[in-house]
């Protein structure tokens, strides 16, 4: 009786139970229902697929190099010049990875006192410091000023470059001065006076003995190609 009292004045249609939720019957309705409930999951999975595909393509198409040469220059060096230098090393290098071709990557870092190049120089210094800290790059072409600064930062009696054992070289018998060589002139290097040498397998590069020997063989063959003995000091 009490229940009927509380329902006095309530329209009969309001007392009817809610109809059951109708499931979509058409393909479009089903798709809309699925998208409503799972769209964020679908978007996340799609994003991960795109990232994975991009990384896979990058890995499959990247160039594998047998050698790496890092140049530190005071003026910008053209891509053509880098390619010429790379080609000169490739002509005397070994196929380290056995893929049937000798490939040399030449990277140029610009470190200049020109204030207009301050930002680029800062970035190049940071990258060079990362190479020195990691020890993964051993073959360098350094300007005399950078070489002197680097040498001054080392402990007394320690030399940055390895002994070239009688090959045409400059300074303390560890690096080759390419000033005046035909390759330097052909590359349009101009004032890019560089000393080429291979870092010792010590310090952060202490586990790179095999790479050091490979780079030393390359550098010595390259020096001979340049007429190395004409630049001994």
Keywords summarizing the entry:
2 domains; 7 helices; single chain; 11% strand
Could you characterize the architecture of this molecule?
With 233 residues, the chain is of the alpha/beta class. The chain has 2 domains: 19-62; 67-231, D-Maltodextrin-Binding Protein, domain 2 (3-Layer(aba) Sandwich). It has helices at 2-6, 27-61, 79-90, 118-134, 144-152, 182-186, 209-225, and strands spanning 67-73, 104-110, 139-142, 175-177, 195-198. The chain has a 5-stranded mixed β-sheet with strand order 2-1-3-5-4. The chain is elongated. 25% of the residues are buried.
Q: What is this structure's SSE topology?
A:
Elements: H1 2-6, H2 27-61, E1 67-73, H3 79-90, E2 104-110, H4 118-134, E3 139-142, H5 144-152, E4 175-177, H6 182-186, E5 195-198, H7 209-225
Parallel strand pairs: 1-2, 1-3
Antiparallel strand pairs: 3-5, 4-5
Write the element-wise H/E pattern from the N-terminal end onward.
HHEHEHEHEHEH
- Can you count the helices? 7
Determine the oligomeric state from the structure.
single chain
Low-confidence stretches: none
What is the terminal separation in angstroms?
118 Å
Helix content: 40-55%
CATH class of the largest domain: Alpha Beta
Tally of distinct domains = 2
And the CATH topology of the largest domain? D-Maltodextrin-Binding Protein, domain 2
- Cα radius of gyration in angstroms: 33 Å
């Amino acid at each position: 009786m009490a229940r009927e009292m509380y329902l006095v004045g309530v329209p009969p249609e309001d007392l009817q139970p809610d109809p059951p939720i109708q499931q979509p019957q058409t393909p479009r309705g089903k798709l809309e229902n699925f998208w409503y409930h799972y769209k964020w999951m679908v978007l996340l999975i799609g994003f991960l697929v795109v990232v994975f595909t991009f990384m896979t393509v990058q890995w499959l198409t990247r160039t594998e190099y047998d050698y790496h040469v890092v140049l530190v220059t005071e003026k910008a060096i053209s891509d053509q010049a880098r390619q010429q230098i790379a080609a000169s090393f490739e002509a005397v290098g070994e196929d380290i990875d056995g893929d049937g071709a000798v490939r040399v990557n030449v990277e140029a870092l610009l470190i200049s006192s020109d204030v207009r190049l301050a930002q680029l120089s800062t970035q190049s210094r940071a990258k060079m410091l990362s190479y020195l800290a990691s020890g993964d790059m051993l073959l360098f072409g350094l300007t005399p000023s950078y070489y002197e600064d680097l040498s001054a930062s080392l402990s007394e009696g320690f030399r940055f470059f390895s002994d070239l054992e009688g090959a045409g070289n400059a300074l303390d018998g560890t690096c080759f001065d390419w000033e005046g060589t035909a390759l330097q002139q052909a590359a349009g290097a101009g004032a890019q006076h560089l000393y080429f040498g291979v870092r010792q397998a010590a310090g952060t590069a202490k586990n790179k003995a095999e790479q050091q020997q490979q780079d030393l063989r390359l550098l010595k063959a390259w020096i001979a190609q340049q007429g190395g003995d004409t630049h001994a000091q």
